[in-house]
Write a structure and sequence with these properties.
about 350 residues; alpha/beta; eight-stranded mixed sheet; binds uridine-5'-diphosphate; binds magnesium ion
Length: about 350
């Protein structure tokens, strides 16, 4: 398998101005890849622009990576990127953005939940002056009610807590101009809550509503625990309000404790001191203990974040980047003629 693919690290050719990059992070998506390529080609070829597909294999355990190499071998518009292991979607996405060269960059999921057919509409908004085109989900087909509810609550909470506005119900599906991508690339943080980072960049933003499809094949990589982790990440990356809450709660707890203590002293002076008071004592102790533990936990979360940031580790490690050179006759903008995709 190895030797058949001519590998080369690609630097964008001098003459080549790529109008559009489509960046797709993928993990164990072998079953959808043929369909994904098919749908993307159907949409993008008629646009008659020079485009590239930056497909980032996030250390898949199935043979998604090999399929990408095969695809890249026969299709010059495909840039196959493999990471050295599974780094998580946010890192894979960052790798894809770093390697993209297009004037406009569209990010979408491999599972076809984000319909590629909308790209044309997104490009239209881009050409009429928006640097960022956000895709807002009108519906979420095939997702359970508790996922929808928790997502809804999460976005509301996040917007209350953080100072930048992170648009509700938008995922990573979006278009960004080259300068927006370049701005994003300058954000050095390790803890990457991409939706927040996208919003932080700013720039004129256009919102398009769409209906989110069901997964075309394969399984979701998310479970409740991972989603909770992501939500926590989102909140603590973009807001220190929880720290303030910890302070306020501690203060309130202390005030209640103080008042209660004062009342007990007065009560004992007025009515003597029977042995009672044990239950209230325990109540106060557990309450204050709880407040303290919570506050320490919140502080710890931020300390931990600082710890990881100070290590300055790279976000991802590349295994290889493969792209076939354009055939000389093929280098004009419009005709990215290609043979057929490798057998599904
Ligand atoms: N993904 C990835 N790395 C991971 C997990 C997921 O690159 O560790 C990709 C996955 O292949 C898909 C996208 O991220 O293209 C969204 O994942 P998924 O569809 O599982 O999430 P959901 O749509 O259920 O939120
Ligand atoms: Mg999905």
């Amino acid at each position: 398998m190895r030797a058949e693919h001519e590998r080369q690290l690609i630097a964008p050719g001098p003459s080549a101005r790529v109008a559009l990059s489509v960046v797709i992070p993928l993990y164990n998506e072998r079953t959808v890849l043929p369909l994904l390529y098919e749908r993307l080609s159907q949409v993008l070829k008629p646009l008659a622009i020079r485009y590239e597909l930056v497909l980032v294999d996030d250390g898949s355990r199935d043979d998604s990576g090999l399929y990408l190499l095969e695809l890249a071998a026969s299709h010059p518009e495909v840039k196959a990127v493999r990471l050295s292991r599974n780094f998580g979607k946010e890192a894979a996405l960052t790798a894809g953005l770093d390697l993209s060269v297009g004037e406009a960059v569209v990010v979408l999921d491999a599972d076809l939940q984000d319909p590629p057919e909308l790209i044309e509409q997104m490009l239209a908004a881009f050409h009429s002056g928006s640097d960022i085109v956000c895709m807002k989900r009108r519906s979420r087909a095939g997702e359970s009610w508790h996922k929808r509810l928790s997502a809804h609550l999460f976005y509301r909470l996040l917007n209350i807590l953080s100072h930048i506005e992170i648009p509700a119900d938008t995922g990573d599906f979006r278009l960004m101009s080259r300068r927006a991508v370049d701005a994003l690339k300058q954000l050095p943080e390790r803890n990457r809550y991409m939706k927040g980072l996208f919003a932080w960049v700013g720039y004129p933003t256009h919102v398009i509503e769409y209906d989110r499809d069901e997964r075309a094949a394969g399984n979701t990589k998310w479970n409740a625990l991972k989603l909770f982790g992501l939500a926590f990440e989102g909140i603590t990356s973009f807001s220190v309000t929880p720290l303030r809450w910890a302070t306020v709660m501690g203060l309130l707890g202390a005030l209640v404790g103080l008042t209660f203590g004062f009342w007990i002293v007065v009560d004992a002076l007025l009515h003597g001191n029977p042995v009672g008071g044990y239950p209230s004592l325990i109540a106060v102790i557990t309450f204050l203990g709880g407040v303290q533990l919570l506050s320490i936990g919140v502080v710890g979360e931020y300390v931990g974040k600082t710890y990881f940031e100070t290590k300055q580790r790279p976000l991802y490690v590349l295994r290889d980047v493969v792209q076939s050179p354009l055939a000389p006759a093929d280098s004009s903008a419009a005709d990215q003629d290609s043979t057929h995709a490798p057998a599904p």
